[in-house]
Amino acid sequence: MPRWSSFDGAADRRLVQGLNDGDRTSLAALYDAYAERLFDYCVSMTGEYKTAVEIVHDTFIDAWRRAPRMRDQMRLGSWLYAAARRRCLQRGRARQLHWEAGPDFADALPADCAEDAGARPEPPPVAELAALLERSLARLDAADQELLLLSVRHGLRPADIGAALGLSARRAAARTRRARSLLHAAYEAEQALYARRCPGAGRAGEAAATGGAHAAVAERPAAARRHGGRSRRAGGVLTARRSSRSSAAVASRAHSDGDGRAHHGNCPACRRRRRVEVGALLVHAPSPVLPAALRHRVMHTATDPELAGYRTDIAARGGALTPDGMPSQPDVPSPYTRRWLFAGGGMAGALVTALVAALLIGPGLPPSTISWPPFRTHPQPAVTPDRQNNEQPHTSGQSGGRPPLAQAPAAPGVPAVPSPQPTDTGTYRPAPTPSPTSPVSPSPTPTTPETPPSPGIPTVVPAKVELYGTKTAQVRLTAENGPVVWNSVSSSDRISVSPAQGSLEQGDSIDLTVTLHTTFLNPPGEGTVTFLVDEGPSRKLDVVWGFYLI
Which of 194, 196, 207, 501 is deepest in the core (most CB within 10 A)? Predict the structure, then answer.
């Protein structure tokens, strides 16, 4: 039977409603119901009384402010244990559960172990029981010890343990069963060690060894007795004394195995120790005394208006709450964290698979004909239909006729062309063409022919561009030994030069931008940009790029 009873869901709900309304009486009732068991839990977890007092104080102040936020108001006890546990982990949990030795351990001895009906046997020493429990728990890890403390000593159900530890009820139940089985196995091992160290077990072992040796001597063959107590093997080796020692060793081992179990029924001390259950030791371990002044301190901190900032700081140190309103535990990852880790791991695996596939089959793929967003979109010349010369002559008699165009004045020295004249029938008659006259042209003046400039030579600096981690690079084109009219041609549609063409005077330079156009997956490659000139040698620019994703 646990040291404290289980939680009352209806009472917890009324307390939560009172805390939500700011009722001081509800806070006092909450302290009276849970202060002693929380103090015992904190002392067992931390091993320090002063630290346990501070944790209990902060737990009730935090509950005064944030406990009404829980979704299931019947889990008030689990909320308090969760808040206290988080602060115990922040302060530092002890390696082993802690309590002091006291007379309470004597209550763990059952009353039916009397040697006769009218007397109760003397219980085992308290120090021996405390050491037995301590050594049994030392064989377990800290998580199993905490599960046993909550389930056996404090009487929490698996659902309450799961809510306090941030686990599901099914997982909490499985871990609790596993911890109980480990504790029983460790307790049996420690009982066996105590039985071997029992003084009565040593005397019984000597008697068994002596009896075994005498039996071995008595069973020697008659031929050995005729040889003076000595028997010989084929090689003539004496074996009488060795047989005695071997028989004693066998008898000793038999006592430690089979006779050791029989010793528990014959030795009163071992029999009393064996009847003490390990769960009873854990339940009846001494409980620390709760300080009487702690209740007044909790009520004063919770109700004093001048300590509002202090209460806020205490609640902030309590950490965030889960979606159910329970205090989050530092050793349990959030469900959102697990969800994001699972999604991130899946995305990383898919990305690595895509990269490996691109590296394996990427160099053999043809260049993509689709580019998004579109690059190198130069304006195209407009296409206009040719005007058909099928216009019909317009007459002046028609309503939609076009009037004749006025004759433009002739230039000086050029004879005027007469315009056509209308006739009486409404048609136009062409005007007579004047006879051409040969104008007198002035004598030409002699001119000296100009010598055309010699073509220049383009130079590109640098001669090679490496695009690793970037998609653009700058190069400089310079005209030497004369003017240059140049044009750029790329060997790959993934490389472009801006501007793509132009002209330079002698000694002039221009900075060009080399751009790499990528799609979703782009394997490594290389290309060449050739700068062509009208007259003179061309220049080449080597471009190398690495793997790009998008």
Answer: 194
